[in-house]
Amino acid sequence: MPQGRSTFTKRQKEQTRQQKQREKAERRTQRKQEKPVESGVDEMAELREHAAAQAALFNIGVEETETAEESTSDRK
User: Fold this and answer.
1) Rounded to 5°, angle at Cα 42 from 53 and 58
2) SS (H, E, C) the chain
């Protein structure tokens, strides 16, 4: 049985709609995947900076105690 022009047009419209829906879902998942990666990189950089700052503070504290210990041992 031959299909009318309106049936063909409806089918094309439906296929186009489904294709757009798939593309939209694909873009959505791509954004979700990219978002954590970007924040993860920034978090790691912040953690490294914080760790470096703490290490610097720790090293300063060690040098001060060594200097204090040396000065007390010189007095004896």
Assistant:
1) 10
2) CCCCHHHHHHHHHHHHHHHHHHHHHHHHHHHHHHHHHHHHHHHHHHHHHHHHHHHHHHHHHHHHHHHHHHHHHHHC
What single-letter amino acid sits at 26? E
* pLDDT, tens digit only, all 76 positions of the chain: 566 789 999 999 999 999 999 999 999 999 988 876 555 667 888 888 989 888 888 886 555 555 555 555 555 4
Look up residue 46 and give its two tokens.
Answer: 């912040």
pTM of the model: 0.42
State the residue for tokens 């001060």.
64
Let me know how many helices (H) and strands (E) the chain has, helices first. 1, 0
